[in-house]
Write a structure and sequence with these properties.
Elements lengths: L26 H27 L19 H4 L8 H5 L3 H41 L6 H10 L4 H12 L4 H19 L8 H12 L13 H13 L3 H7 L5 H6 L1 H34 L2
Helix pairs in contact: 4-5, 4-12, 5-6, 6-12, 7-9, 7-12, 9-10
Length: about 290
């Protein structure tokens, strides 16, 4: 192993030459100084001769317009004029006309539909009243219901007294006439108070047992007249039967007086009901054809 150095040997040298200072500015420092000086000279040359060697391109500049002079205060405070009628109203004229035309069409359709509904309701009420009038019972309720739909009909006003009583059907009148015809034939043979005894005895016997010739409908005898009236009644022709019975003598007509009253009511009822029905159907057809 090497021995540790002796402390006496670690002593600074005493020769001053050993402590001579090294040079601070070597050759490299002078090179850098020269380069810096050269850059400064080049920069000064570019700054001095650059504008003449490299002229700058001129860029066009926009002309500066003079600022507009402010308006007078009176003009700036003047009210803005309102838009004319032509610009504010003339534009919506066409749409307004279309809307008005459409409203008119809708109103017409609603009115037509209401008229058709009213006419149909009236026709239905007439049918109900006619069915009740064809029976032998009174029909005041059905007539009142129809008057609410057709208040101004003169035929309905004429039916008011007839509806309170009603009238026998046409078939019922034919049966009633058959029951009264024998008595009417006997009454037609009454010789009167001035007849002789034999004529009065024959009339008394005929009133007990009614004898009537029903086979012959020709001639002007009471039996022929009654026979013709019976045939007409069986066919439903009450008007013709009443007209034919006008030729009977007064005693026979007195026997048939209640029947005449009932037959005339039936004729009047049927006539007025037919008139009301025709008017209602005509109104319904007219309104239906006029509907768009």
């Amino acid at each position: 192993m090497n021995a540790a150095p002796d402390p006496a040997e670690i002593v600074a040298p005493s020769d001053p030459a050993l402590y001579a200072r090294k040079r601070v500015m070597g050759p490299s420092v002078w090179v850098w100084l020269f380069l810096c000086l050269l850059c400064a000279v080049l920069g000064a040359g570019v700054a001095w001769f650059g504008p003449t060697l490299f002229p700058a391109k001129s860029t066009p500049t926009a002309p500066i317009s003079a600022a507009p002079s402010p308006k007078p205060i009176a003009e700036r405070l003047a009210p803005v004029p309102a838009p004319t009628v032509e610009t504010s109203v003339a534009a919506p004229v066409a749409p307004a006309a279309d809307v008005e035309r459409l409203d008119g069409r809708v109103t017409a359709l609603e009115t037509t539909q209401k008229s058709v509904a009213d006419a149909a309701a009236a026709a239905l009420a007439v049918s109900t009243m006619a069915e009740a009038a064809n029976s032998s019972r009174p029909f005041s309720e059905e007539l009142a219901g129809l008057q609410r739909v057709l208040p101004g009909s003169p035929s309905l006003r004429a039916l008011e007294p007839l509806a309170r009583l009603g009238a026998p059907t046409r078939a019922g009148l034919a049966v009633q006439f058959g029951n009264l015809a024998g008595r009417a034939a006997s009454a037609a043979r009454n010789p009167g108070a001035d007849a002789d005894l034999f004529a009065r005895i024959r009339y008394a016997l005929s009133s007990i047992v009614s004898i009537r010739h029903v086979g012959s409908i020709k001639g002007s005898t009471p039996d022929a007249i009654l026979a013709r009236a019976q045939v007409l009644l069986d066919e439903g022709d009450i008007e013709g039967a009443v007209a034919a019975l006008e030729a009977l003598p007064d005693p026979a007509r007195e026997v048939l007086a209640p029947w005449f009253a009932a037959a005339n009511r039936r004729v009047e009822i049927d006539r007025h009901v037919a008139s009301v029905r025709a008017d209602a159907l005509a109104a319904l057809a007219r309104i239906t054809q006029a509907a768009p």
